[in-house]
């Protein structure tokens, strides 16, 4: 695997560590950089062009942890995993604690546990439409399974017509679809939560309707063995980090980090191994 970690902001008083969704893109995390108060660093993982066979979540996390500990300074780590990145964040946090680093917390950002994804009915057209920001209302009523090539052709037509993206071609979308499929395969592999001492929070998108048939905690109580506290942030699954919604999400993340780090500070600061 190639290097995946990017430094979005320097800081000497702890760090936010963000993990990408299934698209592999970390672009949206850049909006958080100017919004985080305090002298905290911001790192993000991206994997927009994965290669080779899809790994397990544990294997991917081990690779990311090696990269993180090579560049992160001493201090408390606060993980934020968006969608697919939620379970990867849990794994990296477990590795960090095993290395005697202080993990201030893990945020599962509108993220469902692997067993929920495995049990869900695959809807490629709808999933890929979400990936490219195409509203479900713009999609035709398709019941049969259609190949990705036909899906891309349909989405290109919609993007050209609705968003005036006249120059866009199917080849422009294809790499993102490959990344999405690669990560989707990884999250469908067996995974078991490793107990950790860091607090875990579930932050849900208050306008998202795609999870409506599931429990409020999206099944994390079953995966974790306890119910994580739930917080809400404006937007849908795909717009919670938009220019308009990012400030409120950043404020919530800063607040959660501040709550948890007080407890850790009373017991001494952690160091990167």
Notes on the structure:
The structure is a single chain. By secondary structure, the protein is an alpha/beta fold. The protein has two domains: 5-115 and 191-265, 3-Layer(aba) Sandwich (Rossmann fold); 124-184, no CATH class. Helices cover 37% and strands 14% of the residues. The two termini are 22 Å apart. The mean pLDDT is 88.
Question: How are the SSEs ordered, and which strands pair?
Answer:
Blueprint: E1 5-9, E2 15-19, E3 41-45, H1 57-71, E4 77-82, H2 85-98, E5 103-109, H3 114-119, H4 124-131, H5 148-162, H6 170-187, E6 200-205, H7 220-224, E7 230-233, H8 246-265
Parallel strand pairs: 2-3, 2-4, 4-5, 5-6, 6-7
Antiparallel strand pairs: 1-3
Helix pairs in contact: 1-2, 4-5, 5-6
What is the name of the CATH architecture of the largest domain?
3-Layer(aba) Sandwich
Q: Would you report the number of β strands?
A: 7
The total domain count is 2
Q: How far apart are the termini?
A: 22 Å
CATH superfamily of the largest domain: Alpha/Beta hydrolase fold, catalytic domain
What fraction strand? 5-15%
Structural class based on helices, strands and sheet pairing: alpha/beta
Shape: globular
Could you spell the SSE succession in H and E letters?
A: EEEHEHEHHHHEHEH
Would you give the CATH topology of the largest domain?
Rossmann fold
- The percent range for helix content is 25-40%
* Mean of residue pLDDT values: 88
What does the main sheet amount to?
7 strands, mixed
Report the radius of gyration as a whole number of Å. Answer: 18 Å
What are the salient characteristics of this protein?
alpha/beta, Rossmann fold, globular, 7-stranded mixed sheet, single chain
């Amino acid at each position: 695997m190639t290097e995946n970690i990017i430094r979005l902001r320097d800081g000497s008083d702890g760090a936010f560590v963000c993990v990408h969704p299934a698209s592999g893109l970390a672009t949206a995390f850049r909006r958080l950089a100017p919004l985080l108060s305090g002298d905290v660093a911001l790192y993000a993982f991206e994997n927009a062009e994965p290669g080779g066979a899809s790994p397990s979540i544990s294997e991917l996390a081990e690779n990311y942890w090696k990269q993180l500990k090579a560049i992160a300074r001493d201090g408390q780590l606060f993980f934020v995993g968006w969608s697919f990145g939620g379970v990867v964040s849990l794994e990296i946090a477990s590795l960090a604690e095993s290395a005697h680093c202080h993990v201030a917390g893990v945020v599962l950002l509108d993220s469902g546990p692997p067993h929920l994804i495995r049990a869900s009915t695959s809807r490629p057209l709808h999933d890929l439409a979400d990936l490219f920001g195409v509203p479900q209302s713009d999609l035709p009523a398709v019941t049969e399974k259609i190949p990705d090539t036909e899906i891309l052709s349909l989405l290109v037509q919609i993007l050209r017509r609705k968003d005036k993206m006249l120059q866009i071609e199917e080849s422009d979308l294809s790499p993102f679809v490959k990344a999405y499929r690669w990560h989707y395969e990884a999250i469908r592999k067996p995974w078991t939560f490793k107990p950790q001492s860091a607090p875990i929070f579930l932050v849900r998108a208050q306008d998202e309707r795609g999870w409506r048939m599931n429990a409020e905690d999206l099944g994390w109580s079953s995966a974790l063995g306890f119910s994580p506290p739930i917080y809400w942030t404006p937007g849908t699954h795909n717009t919670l980090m938009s220019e308009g919604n990012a400030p409120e999400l950043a404020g919530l993340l800063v607040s959660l980090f501040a709550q948890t780090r007080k407890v850790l500070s009373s017991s001494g600061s952690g160091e990167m191994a």
